[in-house]
User: What shape does this take?
Amino acid sequence: AAFDSYHEAIQPLIIKSALVKAAGAEKDLEQIHVQAVLDLFERQTGRHLDLPYQIEARRVYEGVRIQKKEKPLEMEIYQEISMENDEEQVFCYGNQRITCRILEKWEQKASTQRFDYDIIKNRLVIRTRRPGDYITIHTDGRTQKLKAFFINEKVPQEQRDQVLLIADGSHVLWIVGMRVGCAHQIT
Assistant: This one.
């Protein structure tokens, strides 16, 4: 909205300035690059341009983000949760800490999620997303693909591979920090 408030004669200068600042140089940045970034404002979210000096312009929900390209994280998170004994399991990832244990009596805490162990078909795992993942979004059994959930919740594409999941096969029980599925609730 702030960018749109500037006169259309000033907007290319703002784009050029942002490109020079991100690149650290001006030599190979031309009018065609500036115009391509301006056109990106009219395109759908997720579209991106590869520009000189390893610069990327990406259409995001808020507008267009111009930055140096980041190396994608190649690390996939996957750890099985073993519930064969009554030991507590702790899993840490970034600033998140997940503790798993079997409870005979549920402890009421805001940060505690609970699942019916008898409904779980496979082994629970803590992992990142995979193709085919889905979550039960309603008590009547309606499901939603995880990709559609992330789009509806406007989770930026570059953050989607970092979100931890508690899953039973492709069935996601909990999108950590966001949503708990309805299928494995305690009845």
